[in-house]
Please model this.
Amino acid sequence: MSTPRVILEQALKLRPVDRYFIIEGLLKSLDEPNKTIDEIWALEAEKRLQAFKEGRLKTLTYDEVFEN
Model:
């Protein structure tokens, strides 16, 4: 089995178009949707919206968020 360093050295010898293909594949593999996480975030968003509507959520203005 090749080590990551060996794989990188081999990849760097490829043509730019082939390196791009590998990079795209690796990036896509890191950004795969996770249904469970998506469901958790959807529930959290609903809770936050409900809290906002009920006045239980402290809000900030644009200026407050981005002041330095």
